[in-house]
Amino acid sequence: MSFSRRALLLGAGAAIGGYAGAKLSGDVPPVDGTRLTQPSGATNTLNDASLLSETPVFRHTIMAEAPGDVLIERLRGEIREARAEGRPFNIGAARHSMGGHAIPPGGHAVTFDNGLVEPDTAAGTYRVHAGARWSEVIAALDPIGFGPKVMQSNNDFGVASTFCVNAHGWPVPHGPMGATVRSLRLLLPSGDVVTASRTENADLFNLTMGGYGLTGAIIDMVVEMEPNRLLVPTFDHMAAEDFAPAFVSAVEAGDVNMAYGRLNVSRRTFFEDALMITYRDAPVQTDLPPVTGSGFMSKAAAQIFRAQLMNEPAKALRWWFEASLGPSIGAGEVTRNALINEPVATLDDGDPTRTDILHEYFVPPERFPDFMAACREVILSSYQEMMNITLRYVRTDPDSVLAYAPGPRIACVMLFSQEMTVRAEADHARMTQELIQRTLDIGGTYYLPYRPHATRAQLKQGYPRAEEFVARKLELDPDRVFRNAFWNTYMEGLA
């Protein structure tokens, strides 16, 4: 693989994580500096990528069976017991959310762990176990010349989990990953197994896409794949105010396969400069090399990325490296599959005193300057250390009841390094609520899987069909067996 995008701080992947970070910059606010979480000593607990969501569960079961009768009967048994004892039930995979959303407090937690992938080249699809990770999908499809049409920007998330949080990627021009799902099999709270698609049980399909596992247990899915391609990047450095129209124009032109953007996060020049990176087909599609994982350059780039912490000169150096040096040395050819085959752990620095926290906001392109103005006011007045922002394009989502893209949106993925203390959490919550409200006020919304700092009123404003979702869920599950922290925090109050 060429120097290319991995040496440019991992492209979109640099904004994904949930691992520990380093030190908080600036003075600290006058609130409690006590460690936010302490090991509980309990044996039956689950956490997620925030490291702030340790949650007691009644039982944690790992299921690796193929998606057939044996798996279904095991799930039915767990659901029956949970219902009889009044405990919640929920399924997860990698658990990369950041608010404990997929964990059933005091309940039956199931982790799917089976990488079954069955390609159908004639149909351009693959059948996949709900618990398969994207790395397993790429490993199965790459040898036959294919890859996922859309996936999250890192490869260690679960495929069905991606659908259930309605995640998107950076292949363009597409909507969320769910736009590429043809059908799925769903085990309902009643114990019945049904097929859901856009033409069969479409209401279930739309509730489950972005439904956080509250409508039933996905058994397997049929998902679209795309031929692997040899791509070449183009780098366009511009003023941040010019980014949105340039980005939308490039993506919608029809010849771009992958695309993302970046903004400068140095405090002195915060959000003043932008970089747009677009990937198009190489002139000659030669034999494609086998996909590889993280290499030396990815790990070296991670060191540069982490050096930014509390270090404004390092942020300026990182921006120069990415926006000025990168285009001169990173223009080599690279396969589409290589671009997406990157784990989140590449950027982990292993510091147990900090954690990386993601935000994501979906902004109408015409309001992008207003969003940047809000960020300059809200983020720079906080005590949080912003490490990165990656910009992506998401087409309209006509399917999900809890859709964040009622029209084309620029997805703004932010990564903060947060001190794991009470004072830092309080400041981060305040900042997040302000940023969410400013985004809602310009017609955008925020992404749900991250820290549960949004108010219920903000959820209702950003997701106006939330009460409809709750009402339909309770028709399917009147005993509220399928519950998790997301339901407890937000949706139960809308019932």
Rg for CA atoms: 22 Å
Q: Kindly name the structural category.
A: alpha+beta
State the assembly state of the protein chains. Answer: single chain
Mean pLDDT: 89
Which strand-content bin applies to the residues?
15-25%
Number of helices: 13
CATH topology of the domain at 5-28 and 229-460: Alpha-Beta Plaits
Give the strand line-up of the largest sheet. 15-12-14-13-17-18-16-19
Describe it.
By secondary structure, this protein is α+β, with helices and mostly antiparallel strands. It has 13 helices and 19 strands. It has a domain of 256 residues: Alpha-Beta Plaits (2-Layer Sandwich), CATH 3.30.70. The protein is 28% helix and 23% strand. A hairpin with a 4-residue loop joins strand 6 and strand 7. The longest helix has 20 residues. The relative contact order is 0.18. The N terminus is likely disordered.
List keywords for this structure.
495 residues; alpha+beta; Alpha-Beta Plaits; 19 strands; 28% helix
List the helices and strands and how they pair.
Blueprint: E1 45-46, E2 55-56, E3 59-63, H1 69-85, E4 89-92, E5 108-112, E6 117-120, E7 125-129, H2 134-141, E8 146-148, H3 159-164, E9 181-187, E10 193-197, H4 202-208, E11 217-227, E12 230-239, H5 243-252, E13 258-263, E14 273-281, H6 296-306, H7 312-329, E15 334-335, H8 336-340, E16 354-363, H9 368-380, E17 385-394, E18 409-419, H10 422-441, E19 445-446, H11 456-462, H12 466-476, H13 485-491
Parallel strand pairs: 3-5, 4-5
Antiparallel strand pairs: 1-2, 6-7, 7-11, 8-11, 9-10, 9-11, 12-14, 12-15, 13-14, 13-17, 16-18, 16-19, 17-18
